[in-house]
Amino acid sequence: MSNKTSNTQRQVTWVIILIFLIISTTVGGFFWVKYEIDKKNNNNNNNNNNQEEIEKEKAREVKRVKLIGEASLLVSGYYYEEAIELLKSDSDIYNNKMISEVKRIEDFVADLKPYTGRIEQVFFHSLIVYPELAFGPTSSEPQGYNYWMTTELEFQRMLPLLMERGYVLVHISDLYDVDAQGNVSAKQIYLPEGKRPLLISIDNVGYPESRKKDGFASRLILDDNNEVTAVIRNLEGKDVVSRTAEVFPIVDDFVKAHPEFSYRGAKGMVGITGSWGVMGYDPKIASEAAVAKKITDRMKETGWQFVSHSYTHAAGKYFSENSTLEGVKEDTELFKKWIVPIIGDSNVFIAPFGVTVKGELYQYFIDEGYSFYLNVDRRSQPKILGKSVLMPRINLDGFVMNRDKAYITEHFFDVDKVYDSRRPVFQ
């Protein structure tokens, strides 16, 4: 073979080798670049997925914190089962942290013991908002107001002091059961250590004209937030809306700020005296009765209960030592005719003047469906009498704070921290 031919073959071989190297390098480079791109994309996808999961977990934790806060609020209001159900309500966020919160509540509930102490019930009338009018020269009844009424300032001072003593607002139905035959039995209520039940009632929730000019509220209304509030004639003679002019909005606002003061939303009993009207409205005028019913329905939703305080609130044959069955029946029928359509039925009767009728008169109230008869007695405790409970109440007013100061200070609050210095000298 000639040298020329040999050189040519070697050149071809090298060209083939070079082409192979170029192709290999190109292909390898392509796959390497593709690998790096894929690797980077996978890393980006993983990073994106990780970041997405982090954001989802952050959102879940926000939900957990929110639910735990809501559950704590429920627990403070004694809604234990509801709090546990809330914590378990969202499986997407139910983790060890939530399990721990549920167990904490369950352990707390397991340690609760039934309450076995005294059952106290206190009562009030409409509040004196302007003492200068109630006790002033134009007042209709300055001495009566000084005896039997509480000022708005005193009431505002009482609530935190009652709470400090461990009192918790309850309903009668939290303390007693009434079976289908009308038999009444005591019911166990479980409260944290140091807490004790308190019943409150407000008498004569109607507003006669004389009271309006004497510094008391003139009627109740529902405000723009659908909450009960009071209208009162101020010192200039102008009607104004006020959330501190009557018991109801004051208690509502206090419980909202201190849910531990109310057992499962309980507030108090609204004692309606028929001849005084219903919360400032005439039950015999259809349009006013409709307004009163709307307010009543809303107050029931917010924890208030409406009860009978008689129709006449009169002595003589109605409620006194000389009560007659005829008089009691007449009063009850009037209440059923004019007031029950507005406030609904109730099994609670607040006796006018605290009078305790006896014999056939007491039996009449039981037969009429009143399982709870409320009188006035500062020392006694409730007594179950077959198909009824005789329940004493304590009037936290000027009379008691003066004449029974030591007892009130011992059992409820320091009178000196409550008493309104604007009161006249007690006679």
Short synopsis of the structure:
With 427 residues, this protein is α/β, with parallel strands linked by helices.
Can you give keywords for this protein?
single chain; 427 residues; alpha/beta; TIM Barrel; 2 domains; six-stranded parallel beta sheet; four-stranded mixed beta sheet; 15 helices; 46% helix; globular
CATH top level of the largest domain?
Answer: Alpha Beta
Report the uncertain regions.
none
Largest sheet: 6 strands, parallel
What would you say the CATH architecture of the largest domain is? Alpha-Beta Barrel
The separation of the N and C termini measures 150 Å
Structural class: alpha/beta
The outline comes out as globular
On the 0-100 scale, what is the average pLDDT? 92
What's the number of helices?
Answer: 15
Tell me about this structure.
This protein is an alpha/beta fold. It has 2 domains: 3-110, no CATH class; 114-418, Alpha-Beta Barrel (TIM Barrel), CATH 3.20.20. The protein is built from 15 helices and 17 strands. The protein has helices at residues 3-76, 80-87, 96-110, 131-134, 142-148, 152-164, 209-213, 247-257, 286-301, 325-338, 340-343, 359-367, 398-403, 405-411, 415-418; strands at residues 113-114, 120-124, 167-169, 176-178, 184-186, 190-191, 196-202, 217-222, 228-233, 239-242, 269-272, 305-308, 348-350, 372-374, 383-384, 389-391, 394-395. Strands 2, 3, 7, 11, 12 and 17 form a 6-stranded parallel beta sheet that branches. Strands 13-14-16-15 form a 4-stranded mixed beta sheet, with no helix packed on it. β9 (228-233) and β10 (239-242) form a beta hairpin. The protein is globular, with a radius of gyration of 37 Å. The N and C termini lie far apart (150 Å). 34% of the residues are buried.
